[in-house]
Design goal:
Blueprint (H helix, E strand, L loop, with lengths): L38 H13 L2 H10 L10 H5 L2 H29 L7 H71 L4 H21 L2 H22 L3 H37 L1 H31 L6 H74 L8 H80 L1 H12 L8 H13 L5 H4 L3 H28 L5 H13 L3 H24 L4 H26 L7 H19 L2 H27 L1
Length: 681
Amino acid sequence: MPLNLSCLNSYSFIPSIPLLSNVFNNFNHSTYKSNENSLIQKLSSSIINSKFSLHDIELLFNIFSKKNQHSLNIFILLKTKLISSIFIYTIIILILFLLFSIIFYIISYIKFKKFKINYKNIFLIILIILNHVLFIYKIVIINNVHKTKDSLNKSLYEINREIYPKSFIKHLHHLIKQLTQFDEYSIKSNSIVVLGLKSIMIEAFNRLLKENYFIEDLFHYFNNIDKNYYQLRDSIMNETILTILFDQFTISYKNMTNDLINFNKKLCYYFDNYKSDFNKQILKNLNIFHEKIQFFIQFIEKQIIDKINANFLDQKQEDKIHRYIALIAYLITFIIVCITIIPLIFISIKIFLQWKNEQNIQHNVDKVDSSYIQNDNQQHYPMNVMSKNTVSNQNQSDEIENNIRSINNKYSNSLSDIDQIENNKFEDHDSSRLFLFSIRIVFIFILILVIFLLLITGFLYGLDLLLHGSCRLVHYNQPFLISFTINNFLNQMNNFDINITILNIINDCNNNIHFSKILFKNASIQLNDQLSSTIKDFNQEIFQQFLNVNNKINITSDLDLLINLANLNSLNNIANYLKYIKNDFEQIDQIFKQILTPNSALLGNFTKEIFHEFEKFVIEVTQSTIDPCPLPIDIILKMDQLICHHTAKIINGVWLEIFLFMFFIVFGLYIFGIYVYKQFD
């Protein structure tokens, strides 16, 4: 009866893996550069970087940490580099502009030596040009301020309503769904992972029997012996001299054949039973994955979702911040417009009054000049008359006397016109003093507006410091930021270092390494140990079966007697059959010796190959089920783009632009303007 190996060739094929995960997105985080635009922004960044380092922002974050909240007070805040920098900046610029105001009032009271009219005109032209430049600069600043307002409002709206916590929770639920799907693969008996591992294990046991126990060669030799035995039996039936000895050989052969058949049955029975028990063994082995996945799911639900399941700000708080942002923007616009429009109003009034005064003066001068001309003509006329008519009639004397009286009256009228001009000069002087007084009064109002604007620039300076420092921290010191977030928002867990795990995940995302490496880092080692134990148990059982059957196949002594007897009787055909059988037995004996020689290294290498094959299959299933990077990359990059690469860049240098604008307004337009006014006064 030939032996049957069909039981060893029935195993399932590895199932196809469905694609459930998203396409892998590279975690390309763009470099943060806050000073890549205008010269003012570069200067602002240089000032901030020199005054506010990464260490300073770390200290500021630590002050607001959970463990320091109970001791937080105003004195501690004042000691921070952020508050002290804002305070120092505000004090310095207030002192500077107070000095400017003192200079303004000093110039307004001092009488200067008058320059030539040409220099006065040059000064006036410079003042007008400066005013136009500042007017254009004003439009640029107002535009930047409203861009900043829109950017802050957009960032606040997007982060508070769309990103946090809405997008984060959506991503986390998506991640939990994927983890749950993979978890089902590890707990259901008909799942992809279980069927795949079952197929891999059955195929592995087939390989073990074929490669380590040479089962196909053994069965081949056994079947050859069985075939040659029946051919030998047919040949010996006519040879009575070998019948008795062959009958004894037949008894031994039948016993050996029965043992081999039992060995075949036991092998197939054990293999079939082991296949039916594979589900339990495999599910037991995959329980490591199940526990690991459940740990991550519980961690995400309890430690993260439960703590961010609310908006950063409620609707009223968000609306209030939007109103404050709009108020600051409109207040800046109002102040800038006021401090630029008021000088234009005064310049226009002064030009109008100057033009009106010049018209009055010119009218009076023309009037006086015409009177002088008439008087001169009439003075010459009677003298000519008297010279030419010395001997004229006495009747004309009365007419001449009347002409002289008329001339005298006209002289007195011209003198009154001159007095009127002098009176106009005194009136112009009084109006000039009144105009200068009004400038001084209005400048107090301007100074109050400037102080308000200076305080706002201090706030903008602090906001620029905070945003710039935070963005530098996000881009260049992620370990501190992760540690700060975890220590203040998450609870530490035993035997699980959250900081190191998240840092490793970030590094893996940056290096395009799949999340499964972290997920099964320790689980794979335990699974390898369990798979090794399962293979060793199976191998031990097979080895014992081979050891038992090895002691029952030693019939070579009966073959030697038959071969000698057949050679003595020149039964060459029978002798050849017997030699074939003996040769097959010798081959079987060699194989058994090789099998029964212990070789732990061979089994160890075989176990590693099986584990790597299974690990490769599990990784393929994991990569098809779970996203490569568990981090919400798109959300993180969107927040980074909103805050650091858009809002922080727009707000960068706004405080410096407003400061420079006020400097040129006060020093260039007001102080220089009052000086030019004093020259024309």
